[in-house]
Amino acid sequence: PTTHFGYKTVATDEKASKVAEVFHSVAAKYDVMNDLMSLGVHRIWKKMTIESAAVRSGQRVLDLAGGTGDLAAAFSRKVGETGQVVLSDINDSMLKVGRSKLADMGILGNVEYVQANAESLPFPDNYFDCITIAFGLRNVTDKQKALESMARVLKPGGRLLVLEFSKPVHKSLSTLYDVYSFTLLPLMGKLIVNDSESYKYLAESIRMHPDQETLKGMMETAGLDNCNYTNMTGGIVALHKGFKF
Ligand code: SAM
């Protein structure tokens, strides 16, 4: 099947291997591309997520689909020596880049690296005070299953934050954004890392991701309470937050 933009869509059972291929391919250049493609704005989205997570000294934090570790690095400073941060990702290439980046930053003691699928987390029940998943959920094949797995490993009183591309609130912004993501993004991918396919996948995965209200409903179905979201940059990105009581 093809999307209305003419790109081939990926069948669900092929999705995981497509995602693996994409992130093995982009891992080395991932951080540079993030800055270029978002004109640096991803740093602001992440900063707002880190502030909203309100992680304190001594807490246990899971940065899921954490890739190159931008959030994990910030959390490591906040939890201090008595806390614990787990940087987890399904992809070992991304995890390796993350591990060496954090080591270069002098972050050693309180961060662990765990290769895991968000759909079946290898952690005990009721373990983490806070879980974040930034620009990760849309890559997961069974998103509902992943949200349920996250709810299971959250402590009662803990919170889940999902930072993800979402649906722009105004039609004009939406049109502009479509043009950007379906033409400029793959072109930048081609010119900078000679990989337009990965960036076509990126645009497609953004387009197919559930909108704000749908994702909120999925979090509620997973058993989380007080779920709400904040739109950023006109809804291009949304930060969803939910609690386990
Ligand atoms: N969180 C980082 C950030 O915001 O820069 C990385 C985001 S990157 C766009 C998406 C990450 O999700 C990749 O590192 C990819 O390997 C990971 N991922 C994809 N499917 C996953 C799954 N089922 N479970 C865990 N991680 C997954």
UniProtKB/TrEMBL annotation:
It comes from the Bacteria. InterPro entries: SAM-dependent_MTases_sf, UbiE/COQ5_MeTrFase, UbiE/COQ5_MeTrFase_CS. Pathway: Cofactor biosynthesis; ubiquinone biosynthesis; Quinol/quinone metabolism; menaquinone biosynthesis; menaquinol from 1,4-dihydroxy-2-naphthoate: step 2/2. GO terms for molecular function: 2-methoxy-6-polyprenyl-1,4-benzoquinol methyltransferase activity; demethylmenaquinone methyltransferase activity. PROSITE patterns: SAM_MT_UBIE, UBIE_1, UBIE_2. GO terms for biological process: aerobic respiration; menaquinone biosynthetic process; methylation. Keywords: Menaquinone biosynthesis, Methyltransferase, S-adenosyl-L-methionine, Transferase, Ubiquinone biosynthesis. It holds the Pfam family Ubie_methyltran. S-adenosyl-L-methionine binds at residues 68, 89, 117-118. It catalyses: a 2-demethylmenaquinol + S-adenosyl-L-methionine = a menaquinol + S-adenosyl-L-homocysteine + H(+); a 2-methoxy-6-(all-trans-polyprenyl)benzene-1,4-diol + S-adenosyl-L-methionine = a 5-methoxy-2-methyl-3-(all-trans-polyprenyl)benzene-1,4-diol + S-adenosyl-L-homocysteine + H(+). Methyltransferase required for the conversion of demethylmenaquinol (DMKH2) to menaquinol (MKH2) and the conversion of 2-polyprenyl-6-methoxy-1,4-benzoquinol (DDMQH2) to 2-polyprenyl-3-methyl-6-methoxy-1,4-benzoquinol (DMQH2). Belongs to the class I-like SAM-binding methyltransferase superfamily. MenG/UbiE family. This is Ubiquinone/menaquinone biosynthesis C-methyltransferase UbiE. It comes from Pelagibaculum spongiae.
